[in-house]
Design brief:
Blueprint lengths: L1 H19 L39 E2 L14 E7 L2 E9 L3 E5 L10 H10 L3 E5 L17 H15 L7 E6 L1 H11 L6 E7 L3 H7 L3 H6 L4 E2 L2 H10 L6 H7 L4 E3 L2 H6 L16 E2 L21 E2 L5 E2 L6 E3 L7 H8 L2 H7 L4 E5 L7 H8 L10 E5 L3 E3 L6
Parallel strand pairs: 4-5, 4-6, 6-7, 7-14, 14-15
Antiparallel strand pairs: 1-10, 2-3, 3-5, 8-13, 9-13, 11-12, 15-16
Helix pairs in contact: 3-4, 4-11
Amino acid sequence: LLYTIKFEFAMERLKELQKTGTIPPPHHKPMYHPDHSDPIVQSGSSNFSIPSAGSSKRSKRKRSFSELPWSDYFSDRKIVEAGRSKFCVYSKGSGPVVLCLHGGGHSSLSWAVFTADLLQRTQVQVVAFDQRGHGDTTTEDDSDLSAETLAGDVGVLWNVMYPEDKPPVVLMGHSMGGAVAIRVAAQDVIPNIRGVAVIDVVEGSAMDALSSMQSVLKRRPKKFSDKRKAIEWVLKSGQLRNNESARVSMGGQLKKVTKKDRSATPDNPVPNTSTDLAEEIEEGGAERVEMSPSEGSMQASEVVMTSEGEMTSQPDMGYTWRVNLSATEKYWSGWYSGMSKLFLSVPAPKLLLLAGPDRLDTELTVAHMQVGPGRDERNYCLYSQNREVCLGGLQY
C-alpha cells in the first residue's frame, strides 16, 4: 500500500512537471548530433531512434564531404611578406601566442579544429602559418625544406610580425613541425619561449619509418576530380578520422592540376569514383581502403571523372597534392636526426604527446628512467594517449 501511494504521488508530480515544461514528454526523441558540424543525414522522420539491444546491424550515418571555410575557425588570414617570401598566416584570439607548426604535406588549416577547441578553454592567441613549400606560402625556393631553412623561416616571420615587443610564445609542432619547433627552441631562434609541445614524433621511431615512407606515398592517389573526393578518400583510407578536421584542412593540402603536373605523371592513379559520394561510413571508425594504380586509372591528360561520375575532357580540372613529398626525401633524416637530444636540451617547459609510452627512443627512455625530484628546474612532461607520465612532478 505504501509503495502504491508513493507511485501515484510520483506520477502526479511527473504530470505537473510536464505541464510546466520542466522536463520533456516521456516519448520525446531528440535529434542526435555526433558532433557540431557533422549531423546525421536524415530521411523521413526528424527523430533519431536508438536501435534495440538485440539488433545485429550496426547503426550507420552518412557524412558530408563538403569543404568547410577557414573563417569558421580563424578570425584573420593574411599574407606576411618577409624578404622574397610570402607566408600565409592564420590567427585568432588574444594574449600569449601559441605558434603552431604543421607536419610535412599538411598546412596551417590542420590546426583549425584544435584552435577552436583551445580558445574555448583558455585565452591565448593562436598563430598558424603555412611553412615553406606548403599551403599558400610562396618563397624563392619552395623545394628547400631543410630543417635549418624551416627553422630560419620561423625567425624571419616572427621578426616581421612582431618587430618590437616580442610576446611570450609556446611552440607547438606536429611531426615535421615538431622537429622544427625543437630546433627553434634549442637554438633560440626567437625570444621569450615559454614552452614547447611536440606531437606524435620521436627521433627513433621516425628514423626507423623513413625506409618505408616512399612505398606509403606511392599508394596515395595522385589526383582527385574535386575536393570532395579528396576529403572522402582521406577519411576512408584512415589518414584522418575526424570528419570536421578533414573538411577544413584538405583544401590546404591540394592545388589545381596544371598541364605541367599531368605531363610529369602520365599514368597517375585516380581515385575510384564509381561509388556514390555519400557512401556510408560506419560509425565508430573509418573504412580502410587501398587504391591500386589499376583501380579506376585513366589517362589524366585526356579525361577526368567528375563528382557526378561523368567523364570530361577539360584539361584544367582536378586537384593534386600541393607538396610532392617523395621529392623531399633528402631532407627527411635531417628533420629528425639528433632531435631527442635537442628536445631534452631545451630550457623551456616541454610536453611530448605520443600514442603510447612504448614509442620512446633510447635518449628519451634514459631521461625518463633518470628522473628524480629536484634534479633540476627544467620542466618536462611526457603524455601518452593511455596515461600521463609527469617526470619528477613536471621536473627532471
